[in-house]
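Risk mitigation, structural track. In case the binding assays with coenzyme A fail to produce interpretable data, a predicted complex structure has been prepared as a fallback.
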Amino acid sequence: MEPGKEQIMLTTERLLFRQHTMADMDAFCAMEQDPEVRRYVGGKPRTREEAEHRFINDPLQPIDDRMAVWATILKSENRYIGRSGVYPHYKPDGEIIKNEGALSFYIAHEYWGNGFATEAGRAFIQFAFNQLKLKRIVAVVEVGNDASVHIIKKLGFTLVETECGPRSFYHFVLKNASDNPL
Ligand SMILES: CC(C)(COP(=O)(O)OP(=O)(O)OC[C@H]1O[C@@H](n2cnc3c(N)ncnc32)[C@H](O)[C@@H]1OP(=O)(O)O)[C@@H](O)C(=O)NCCC(=O)NCCS
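Fallback model:
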């Protein structure tokens, strides 16, 4: 796809969310190769080769045109600074759970601490509840990822389970407040 012609999914005051394009590959790979970014998501950095493989083969592109992890662009610099979105929530057997989504955000290390993940998270929650009419959004955060836990709680999520293992994970849930069970 010609750069600049990608489908824009959503915008916020400082950010723009759009489909990934091949032009994003270097910035994507730099994040995947960064041990700080990978500390609580996979644990160790990927090699450039692994990162490229993931960029090309992973379902980064929208599944139903609306639920996916999107290229996150800092508008003032027209620069790829990460990826974020609400993507389908899968059961362990791979089946998609209807009316649910999973929130995700990754920001390049040099842009941490500017409120970008919070801004992205807030925008996607509003989108998921108001436009997609999802009933629940989940978030899985590795124990120790305190910045992410802080953001998830600030966004209103509730801790429902702690999964313990060699790597332990918190499971958070946010329900659609306007969802009437009757
Ligand atoms: C987690 C991550 C997305 C945060 O991105 P960010 O743009 O820096 O986040 P924000 O600036 O919006 O917010 C960070 C918040 O965490 C707080 N924080 C930072 N470090 C913290 C720590 N060690 N403990 C508790 N809170 C912390 C900040 O004070 C800020 O809160 P505030 O705005 O209320 O002051 C980013 O560090 C990242 O991409 N990490 C690697 C990938 C990852 O872990 N993704 C999440 C997977 S669940």
